[in-house]
């Protein structure tokens, strides 16, 4: 991260009156006038019923989607005003995205999948391999580096996706239900990894349906019908 | 993303669809192979034909009567318009050493020692043709000077001699069956040293040839100038006494032809009587062969075009099929340029791969065609290099639109794509 004082004061993510409307016949307000600030190094969970706009929120922060109104700032930069190329850079360098549906490349091995973001950063092959192996080790897949997604279980695929999200060492980690498809033991492992990242100063935005998972964050944003219903602070002593 | 990496990823995705990639590249393989085959054949024909003219000395001027549209058929189709009167008048022109007329006698067969060989023509000429030519055996026939009896003698080329078992040699009796079943018995008096170079106007060199004196020639016409019945020849070769004078002799002969020759008066309306040097003829023949080659190559290029469309089509399908992958790559930081590069490299690989496969197949095809036509192989090396360039261009051009449409894919839509 650029380390000048001014930018250090800036929040990691800032949404200002953001709306995302789909107009397909009847307009769908996936997000409706949402303002939210994620401080640097904060750990935020997003909860809400299916269709409440959680994934939409993450996609906007991750520069995959653009709001129909309002601005989204990542690391002090208004990403809604960026060119396609600059948005690609934000996706590749600033944020690490763990998708609800993994989104792995079917023909690449676990190691190649995990290393993919580095390919587009122009990293050398040796460095990519080393980083990818290191992260696969950390998610407990050190012995599956040569497997393709089709040769992995759902939970293993999720962990490859997490390794890929972290391979560029992003300051902001966006995770859309990272424990949704895994057993409790693997889920615990993934959550421990997120705890580590949080402890290391990364900003984390996590979508989950499970209260027990959300409680590990510092605060919980409750979404309903595209709007913020409330933000709860989590009592750290109770969560432990 | 660096080029090596996009190459690796492209190879990866081609490997993922081996059969499809092979079928796609096949269009280019066939196109390139066809182009190289035809270009090789064309170059070989040209080298062979032009080579024959280059063999013949620079002091020759060839007189022909051919259809007047420029670059028409080769001189082999020349009309018989040059009378004996023309031949002797041209012989008197300044700087002319000798004049050799040539005509064909229609035949059906030649028989020697019980062996009959079918031949549709033999050549009638004067002994002047054989000046400065080496004989393997024997010598030229006698001059059929006016008044003297027609010598029953024949000169043959080595390949003609070889048509008969045990080879014809000097002293052998050959019976020639002419059109209308007339039989002429002649004695072989000479076998030439080699096949090449004697009769460049009549087409490919190593055809077997039999030469008889002009007194055996039977194409006659009434000379408009003298009013007498005379032999009339389709081809006449004028030999300049001094090679440096060839152009001047050509001009003088041309003047004579235009001003007062029987030839010009006898030539049918659409025919042109002309005096040409080696260079003129080489140029004309090159033109004809080039045009033919271009035409056939043009057809081959169409198959290349079809190959290019095949690549574009497959790439478009591939972009659609891999929409989700494109979305993933973009989601993890691939720029539009990265995606464009990836798909372009893939199309390029198909194009160049197809070309690389097409070159040896085309060369083999050219070799087969040339062998079948009994020509020595001339490989147009430039084209072999060009083929790879063409593959490259075809790949890029046909991959451009699909790659562009891949680059434009919106990441969020692509990730939702099923
Ligand atoms: N491309 C689209 N076109 C139209 N509507 C859309 C589109 N994408 C999302 N939506 C709508 O936007 C709303 C929010 O969707 P979103 O994916 O953010 O929900 P979510 O909270 O992530 O739900 P889940 O918990 O099921 O993942 C939904 O009502 C959905 O139908
Ligand atoms: Mg969702």
Descriptive key words:
heterodimer, A: 240 residues, alpha/beta, Rossmann fold, 6-stranded mixed β-sheet, 4-stranded antiparallel β-sheet, 10 strands, 36% helix, 27% strand, globular, disordered N terminus, B: 418 residues, alpha+beta, 2 domains, 11 helices, 14 strands, elongated, binds adenosine-5'-triphosphate, binds magnesium ion, MacB_PCD (chain B), ABC3_permease_C (chain B), cell membrane (chain B), Macrolide_Exporter_MacB (chain B)
- Beta-strand percentage of chain A? 25-35%
Estimated radius of gyration of chain B? 31 Å
In the CATH scheme, the class of chain A would be Alpha Beta
Main β-sheet description of chain A: 6 strands, mixed
Beta-strand content bin of chain B: 15-25%
- The ordered H/E elements of chain A are HEEEHEEHEHHHEHEHEEH
Q: Estimate the global geometry of chain B from the Cα principal axes.
A: elongated
What number of structural domains do the residues of chain B give?
A: 2
Provide the spatial order of strands within the biggest beta sheet of chain B. Answer: 3-5-10-7-9-8
Q: In one word, what is the shape of chain A?
A: globular
Q: Can you characterise this structure?
A:
The complex is a heterodimer of chains A (240) and B (418). Chain A has 240 residues and is of the alpha/beta class. Chain A has one domain: P-loop containing nucleotide triphosphate hydrolases (Rossmann fold), CATH 3.40.50. Chain A is 36% helix and 27% strand. Chain A contains nine helices and ten strands. Chain A has a six-stranded mixed beta sheet, sandwiched between helices. In chain A, strands 2-1-4-5 form a four-stranded antiparallel beta sheet. Chain A is globular, with a radius of gyration of 17 Å. The relative contact order of chain A is 0.18. Chain B folds into two domains: 3-50 and 285-416, no CATH class; 80-266, no CATH class. Chain B is built from eleven helices and 14 strands. Chain B is elongated, with a radius of gyration of 31 Å. In chain B, β8 (173-178) and β9 form a beta hairpin. The mean pLDDT of chain B is 84. Chain A binds chain B through residues 59, 62, 64-65, 84-85, 88-89, 91-93, 97, 99, 103-108, 116-117, 119-122, 125, 164, 168, and chain B through 1-2, 5, 9, 12-13, 16, 324-325, 327-338, 411-412, 415. The complex binds adenosine-5'-triphosphate and magnesium ion. Magnesium ion (MG) binds next to α2 of chain A. Adenosine-5'-triphosphate binds at residues 22, 24, 28, 30, 48, 50-56, 100 of chain A.
